[in-house]
Amino acid sequence: MSQKDEFHNIDDPSDGLFRELAAGVTTRIFSGEQAMLSVVTLAPHAQGTLHHHPEEQWGVLLDGSAIRVQGDEEIPVKKGDFWRTPGNVPHTMRAGPDGARVLDIFSPPRPEYKKAGSGFGTT
Asked: What PANTHER family does the annotation carry (predicted)?
């Protein structure tokens, strides 16, 4: 494998493993040995499915605005905000009027996200 294969562009829609998570919610996934990145795009007012998984997850709001649903709280987030979701805590995201783009980081990588497909996996 060339070292060039280890470089990606967050704005290239053809880069990464594509997955449709919900209506109006898609992601491009980049998996390593110990961590996984997921670039999630949410259409205006789109919402993911409340779900949980054992992996720790960090998120960074790259663009737009959203409501982060985490546990039993709804927390407004704006560009530049980032958060940690411990394993097995129920969570989802609801995009604002201009949509949202989020960079999620998982550790360890989520096995169900290592293949193209649809859905969030564990619920």
From this structure: H2HPP ISOMERASE (PTHR40112)
**Is residue 121 in some structural domain?**
no
Beta-strand pair 56-70/36-42: unpaired
Q: State residue 62 phi and psi, 5-degree precision.
A: -80, -40
Q: What is the DSSP letter of 38?
A: E
Structure-block tokens of residue 70: 């985490």
Return the ∠ at Cα 20 (arms to 101 and 48), rounded to 5°.
60
Q: Tokens 């290239």 map to which residue?
A: 12
pLDDT beneath 50: ranges in the chain: 123
d(CA 10, CA 84): 20
In CATH, what number is assigned to the domain containing residue 90?
2.60.120.10
Question: What sign for the dihedral angle of Cα 7, 104, 18, 100?
Answer: negative
Neighbouring CB atoms inside 10 A of 28's CB total 19
Cα–Cα nearest to 101, from 35, 17, 6, 11? 11
